[in-house]
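Troubleshooting log. The previous structure file for this entry was overwritten by mistake, so regenerating from the original sequence record. Sequence copied from the archived sheet and checked twice against the printout by T.R.
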Amino acid sequence: SVLLGPYAGLLVISSILVVQALFFADGGLLALGCNIFNMGVIPCLLAYPLIYKPLTAGRRANGKIWFASVASSVAALTLGASCVVLETCFSGISALPFSRFLLLMLPADASHSYRDRNN
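Regenerated output below.
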């Protein structure tokens, strides 16, 4: 989104996900819509205009761009992981309760539990 804009960025990530699903059997065709939403719509149409653009408004210093990139990336990853949990729970195939599944999917909690397990 930063390099191409939100709509072209969404088109590029959607194309990449289609190629992945068709040629590499990664993700599959049944999950393609959810993958495009979680990895395309959320970062390109939510995180970019609502987090990155306001943080870099005005003078674009290197520190501002770095901070906005990190903040929007973390928000997009967290929202995407949360949407995976919602989509799985709404489908009725989740073996885990919602709260436990959410805690396992969030990046900060997953790294924390990994660190505790290995110490």
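The chain has five helices and no strands. Archived copy saved in two places this time.
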